[in-house]
Structures are given as structure tokens and as C-alpha cells.
Amino acid sequence: MTTRLQGSEPPDHTRRPILPRGLRLPLVLVIVWEAWFALSDSANSSLAAPSQVVSACFSLWMQGAMLEATLQTIAATLIGLAIGGALGIVGGLFLGLSRNFDRLMEVSVEVSRPIPPVALIPIALMVFGFGYRLETSIIAFSVVWPVMILTRSAINSVEPQLREYASLLQLSLWDKIRKIILPAILPSLFVALRLGASIALILAITVEITINPIGLGSSIMTARMSLNPAYMLAYLIWIGLIGLGLNALLVALQRRWFDYARYSGGTR
To answer: Is the alpha carbon torsion for 141, 213, 209, 232 positive or negative?
Structure first.
């Protein structure tokens, strides 16, 4: 008769799924897509089978076209995100810390915020011309508003006890920001930057498709004009994977750096 050691846990015989649940539906859609092309009597010239898309993606990487376009889009996205994020955080700090400044800028912010970033492309084109400056200016404009609004909201939600603590210590404005405000709102700031990163990538592709002759968006238009649906879909799927990877990276960093936000009322 065998006895189980005290404190030992029984082995976990739970079977882990071979395929993650989130990948099951995309896999089914890919199989149906491929089967439809294989069983179709007439080939559809406006689309391509998944096997053709994979082959096209491999060909683009071997040619270096995919890498070049990816680096161009990511560079514009990160630069625009950095500029817009920095301006949004600084603006949100001023709005959140000064009610007078908030009231002074209320009309200007509410008038400028609803303007579609794409509507500024003609103006940015006249000022900056084609290239990175055109793209990053549009991205920065689109990122600055959500980051600014979320930063102001985070400051307004700081616990009153912390503000009273800063007043009792007679901290200067800089020390109040550095020691009280920023530590309290950092999790919310990271959420704002996650939102800004998604917006930045979307606007980068939009500007490239619309007018800027660089990056992945421009490559999609080039593939369309050359009537190559496999290349076009390869670029499109790769953009989705970039967005997925960018969000996964930011979520991992948020969990590692600001995991305490779960216990202090922060949001994921």
C-alpha cells in the first residue's frame, strides 16, 4: 500500500489543446477558402488562394520588398506615436493640473479633436511634401487627442488624499508631478499609448494608401495596379500580423511593469 507524501499535489492530467482556441476559427476559414478555390470551376482573378498568398509572402521576403516596406511603415508609426504621445501627455498634464487652462483650451480642443486626420493630408502635403514628415505629422495629430484626453481623465481621477498629501508637504509643481501624479497615472498612460499605437498604425497605412509612396500601404496599391491579388493579400495579412504583434508586445510590457494596476483600480 502506498501513501502519498503530505503536501504533494496530484499530477495534472488535464490535456492541453493542440491548437489555441483563438486560432481555430481562422484555420477553418483558411481551409474553406482554399477548398473553394480548389473546387471552383473558374478562377477568381480578384482574389487568391491561401497557398498562393503564402507563396507570394515568401517571394516578397526573398526579394526584400516586404522588409523594406515594413521598416518604412514601422518607422513612420513609431515616430508619429512618439511625437503625438509626448504632446498628448504634456497637454493632458496641463489640462488636468490647471482648471483655468482646461477652461481656456476647452473650445480649441473640442473643435480640433473631431477633425478627421485624413482631411489634413492636403495641408500636410503642401507643407511637408511626400515622405516621412507628411506621414508622421498626420499620425501625431491623430494620436495626440486620445492620449491627451485619457491623461487629463487619469489626473482628475487621482485620489484626493494624494493631492492633500502633496499640499501638506508643500511640494513644488515639478515635485508634485514627479512624485505624486506620474506614479499614480502611469498605468492609465500606458493604456493611452496602447490605444495610440493602434491608431498610429491605422493612420500610417491609410496615408500610404491615399498618397504617400512609401511603406506597406503604398505596396498594396502597387500590387493592385499590377493586378496581383496574391501580393496584395500578402501585404494585407502581414499588416494584421504587425498589429497583433505590436499589441501583444505592449500588453506584455504592461503586465510586467504595471501589474499592480489590477489591485489599484487600473484597467487592462
So the answer is: negative
Element spanning 187, H or E: helix 182-210
Number of folded domains in the chain? 1
Q: Each residue of 213-243: pLDDT tens digit?
A: 888 998 999 888 888 888 899 999 999 899 8
Contact of 95 with 185, CB cutoff 8 Å: no
Query: 205 falls in which pLDDT band (50, 70, 90)?
Result: very high
List the domain range (segments joined by +) for residue 194.
Answer: 65-216
∠ Cα 91 94 99 (to 5°)? 130
- Domain-located, residue 194: yes
> Does residue 233 sit within a domain?
no
Residue 72 CA: distances (Å) to CA of 81, 168, 265: 14, 51, 38
Give the distance, in angstroms, between the CA of residue 77 and the centroid of all CA atoms in the same chain: 9
Question: Which phi and psi (to 5°) does residue 28 adopt?
Answer: -65, -45
User: Residue 128 sits in a domain of what CATH number?
Assistant: 1.10.3720.10
* Cβ atoms of residues 88 and 109 within 8 Å: no
How far apart are the C-alpha atoms of 191 and 124, rounded to whole Å? 28
Residues 6+ apart with CB under 8 A from 121: 134, 138, 207, 210, 211
User: Is position 140 within any domain?
Assistant: yes
Residue 232 domain-assigned?
no
Q: Sign of the C-alpha dihedral, residues 260, 242, 151, 76?
A: positive
| pTM: predicted TM-score of the whole model, two decimal places | 0.78
